Structures are given as structure tokens and as C-alpha cells.
Amino acid sequence: MRTFIKNLGIAFLGGCIFSLVSGTSVWAELSQNELRILALEEKLEALTKKESKSDSSSGKKSGDGYIKIKYKGPGFEFRTADGLFSTKLVWRAQMRYTNPNRSDPRSIGNFSTREEVSNFELRRVRMKIGGHGYKPWIQYYFEVDLQPSKSASSGNLGDRARVIDWRITVQPWDGLGFRVGQWKINFNRERVDSSGRQTFVERSIVNRQFTIDRQVGAMLQGRLFKETHADLRYYAGVFNGEGRATNNDDGAHMWMGRLQWNFLGRDLKWRQSDVIYHKKPTASLAFASAYNEGRCTRWSSSGCGTLDSAAFPMATGDIDRYRIDQYVQEFAFKYKGLAIQQEYHWKNIKDRGMPTQAKINMQGAYAQIGYFFHYLIPQIPKGLELAFRYAFVDEPKAGAAVFTNKRKEYTFGINYFIAGHNNKVTVDYSHLTLDDALVAGNFEDDRIRVQWDISF
């Protein structure tokens, strides 16, 4: 029995020794495999880093962080890490209350039958998208009017979104570039200044009669002698002349040219009120002219239209009835919270549809001033601006062009800028008059408007 137990113990001990030796071999083998795997992982990581650097140097990149997103007030900006592409999205709403006369009264009927209308409206609700692609100097922009205002009697007529701006600007050099598409062409400052960058609730009475508004076409532009006393901006374009989103139906085109002299060597942006506080005086003096042959005697964001004084019946195929020559002189100045702006317009219309080729001559002007009185009296809130505007229009009387009517506007305004032009409240009061030459009468009316303009 003892011999059996002894032999069993020896067998067990031998098995343990055999197992230990075999286990050491297995563990050694596993360690070698792990080392091989670790070596392969290191090689793979090195190759991945090398490929990433190669792609980055060639303008390509993959993985997280390639598209950078940030809020760049107003709007959200999407930009590639290499800076070659960007897109900015902005939402804007302009909410207004008016009492009375939603639009400017222009005739005896408008003044004598006063519109007792108290009205709230979404004056402008828009989506703006812009940025650049391929190169920082290849820029694009388009704007959609999401909810045009309408009257209660018009039903669903005009109740639709519309693209009002679409353009591509290529500016490889300060001195030479071009723009193609549809936009408010660079004829005069008051119209090109965005409705969200105005000093008052709305543009002056001059705008309806003299604006060229949005056109489809192409334009050369540039800035010469930058930051000298000869600093000059130029614009020269050719357009369909039919207004927004309208094809040309003949061989005639609208031609436009503008010269802007920044005589203090600093450039003024297309916006009103000195919100950013110019520490140095900045000013411009500009002259522009435009020529067109066609069916239109006025333009607006809705497209081609006809002035009251040129509302004659048009014959079929009468597509080049009116020849228009118009000119503008313009001045703008900003310095330490003070903003001054002025324009003088001339417009000559030849009606080639009348036997005598009747001529219609018009002129108009406005001048406005705004100031942040906080810089004189610190107790006044910093964002508060007081402003005044005077404007007049001399135009032939509708139906009796031998008589010239004169309309005038006196408007007082108060702005409170919460976040510059991106979030502001405006209140203005207007006294409007009409001197009618035919009846030798004077008519007048008053209007108040309140507006909140905000962009996100």
C-alpha cells in the first residue's frame, strides 16, 4: 500500500513538472504573438499619421473637425478647415406697426381720403445665405423673401416666397473684379443700403421715383489708389433693364456707371448710422448715371413698373417705348457717432409712344442726419440715436404733365440699437405734404411707424 501511494505521488509530481515546463513554452509563445501584434499596430499608426499629413498638405482632410461651425453674429458660419469653402446662414424678421397710410401718399386722393388704417405687418421675413468657394475672393450670395406682405383683398395673390438676390462676385484684386447675377445694382446709396441697415423705418419718398432697384446682368468694379486722398471706387455694368427675374425681350440694355471718391482715404460701407463709432472722419462723394430703353419707367423689388405721371396706354409690342436718362449726386459722412447722408436725383423720360415724343422731367433729393448723443451726454443710453430727414420730389402731375407737383417729407426718428443693426427698435414720425399745381392747393398728413428689426 505504501509502495502504491509512493508511486502515485511520484507520478503526480512528474505531471506537475511536465505541466510547468509545457506552460512556460505556451506563455513564451503567447508573449511573442503579443509582441508581433503590438509591432503591427505601431506600424499601422505611423502609416495613418503619414497619410493624414500628406492629405492635409494637398488640401484634403478626412475625419472629425474638417467642417468648423460657429456663430458669427448674425448667423451661423460653416467653414472648411483649409478655409477654401464657407457658408453663412442668417434669418431676419422686420416687424412693423403703421398708422395711418401704409405707403407714401402721392396724390390729392391719397391726402384727402386719409387711410384710417392701423396696421401690423411682417414687412420683411428673409433667409440669407452667402460665403465663398474655391478661393476667398470668389464669393456668392442669395436672399429669399419668405413672406411678402399682401392686402386683405388680394387673397393668396403674391403669397409665395421669392428669390430677390442671387449673385457671384469675383474680386482677385482690389482694383479689378466683376459681379454677375441679380442684385440691387450700385447706383445710389439709399437703395443699396439694406432695409435692415437704415436709419429710419423706411427709405425716403425719393426712392420710389428714382430707384433702379434689382436687375439681372454683369458689372465690373474695383477700388483704386486705396487709402490715399485719391481713393476711388468705380462700378460699370450692363443689365436687362426689365427688373427682377425678367428676361430681356429685345436687343436693348440698361447701362449704369458710378464713381465714388473716398476723399479722406477711408471707405464707407453700404449702411447708415454710425453704429460702430468711426474714430476718424470717413466720407465719400459719388456721381452715377443710368440709361435704359424699354417698357419700364420705374423699378421696385417687384420688378418693372410705371410712374403715375407716365401711365399712358401701351400698344401691343411697344417694348421700347420709354427712353430714360437719370443721374444722381451723393454725399455720405461718418465721424464719432455722427452720420450724414444726402442724394440729389434727376430723371428724364422720353415717351416715344406719343406723337410728339413727350418728355417728362423729374428731380428729387433727400438729406438726413443722425447722432448718438451719448457721446455728448453720458447719461443718455449708448445705443440711442436721434435722427432727422428732409426730402422732396418734383414730378409732373398724373394726367396733366404740363403741371409740376411738389411733395415733401419731414421725418424725425429714434433708434435704440440693442446689438447694432442686427437687433434694433425704430420709431419715426413723418409730416408729408403735397403742393398741387393744377388746383393750386396744399395738402398734408402725418404718420407714425414703430419697427423691430432682428437678425439671427
What does this structure look like?
By secondary structure, this protein is of the alpha+beta class. It has one domain (69-455): Porin (Beta Barrel), CATH 2.40.160.10. It has helices spanning 2-57, 108-112, 189-192, 206-210, and strands at residues 67-71, 76-80, 85-99, 119-133, 135-145, 162-173, 176-184, 214-224, 232-239, 254-261, 282-294, 298-300, 303-305, 322-335, 338-351, 359-371, 384-397, 400-417, 423-436, 441-455. It has a 16-stranded antiparallel beta barrel with strand order 3-4-5-6-7-8-9-10-11-14-15-16-17-18-19-20. Strands 12-13 form a two-stranded antiparallel sheet. The protein is globular and about 110 Å long. The termini are far apart.
Q: What's the architecture, going by CATH?
A: Beta Barrel
Question: Roughly what percent helix?
Answer: 10-25%
Give the class from helix and strand content and strand pairing. Answer: alpha+beta
The N- to C-terminal Cα distance equals 98 Å
Low-confidence stretches: 1-30, 54-63
Q: What number of structural domains do the residues give?
A: 1
Report the oligomer. single chain
Taken as a percent bin, the fraction of beta residues is over 45%
CATH class: Mainly Beta
Strand tally, please? 20
Radius of gyration: 35 Å
Mean pLDDT: 85
Helix and strand element order:
HEEEHEEEEHHEEEEEEEEEEEEE
Helix run count: 4
- Biggest pleated sheet: 16 strands, antiparallel, barrel
